[in-house]
Design brief:
single chain, 271 residues, alpha+beta, Alpha-D-Glucose-1,6-Bisphosphate, Chain A, domain 4, 9-stranded antiparallel beta sheet, globular
Length: 271
Amino acid sequence: MNTESEQPDDATTQDANPQPATKQPRDAAYWARYTERMTVLNVPEGATNRNVEGRRALSPLQGFGKLWQKTYKVRLEGADVSPQEVIRIWKQDFPKFWGATTMGNRFYAPIGGLTPGEVVLINADTPGGGKMSTGIMVMYADDESFTFMTPQGHPFSGWVTFSAYEAGGATVAQAQVLIRPNDPLYEVAMPLGLGRSEDKIWLRTLEALSRHFGVDAPIEMKATVVDRKLQWSQARNIWHNVILRTVVYTMWAPTRRVRELVGRRIPRYRV
């Protein structure tokens, strides 16, 4: 007689006590995966990746200045186009519509398109002649909207969301920002022209988009200060300020050039 008790094998135990599967949210595929630092996988020809690689993406909570919400929208009255088609074309040809292009800036769209998690480089000429490098990360993208998130050093901390929807028998295209100036220098620059430059970018963007669909309509804009408090705990953001870093980099350019020339002329010997 066998007195040893029979133990069920692992498979039997698993079948008897099934583990609940981890359910993913329905929209999980539309969100960028969490990452501590931005990673630029491919640097397009002509682009400068100086203040993007390794930087953290910042929400409005991590900025310094007043919290602004600005909404820009245009009714595509008379255009036979759905919200989904507007967003498809907007994502596909974003550099073509981007209003900052006329201000000397360059938006280097990734080869794979504006998909969740992609990091985009943005280069601009500064008044001092340097090439300012910044960028954005695509935080969210689906058939009716997509959202950018800014990195450390960018003039603003926050989100820019582009969307389209139906209202009153017409499709409406909209850009909405929720941002804080990133550091004390940018906060000071807001009333001196930084805020107006930001407005021009998105107003021109919607003008270009509406023209693409054969619409000549006024752009509506609404700006609200959501929080007037300055977040002094975030004043240290100035360390990553892309304008200051560009100025310093440009000033040291002759020194770097001399070092390169000297390094080439000094012979190296093996011991």
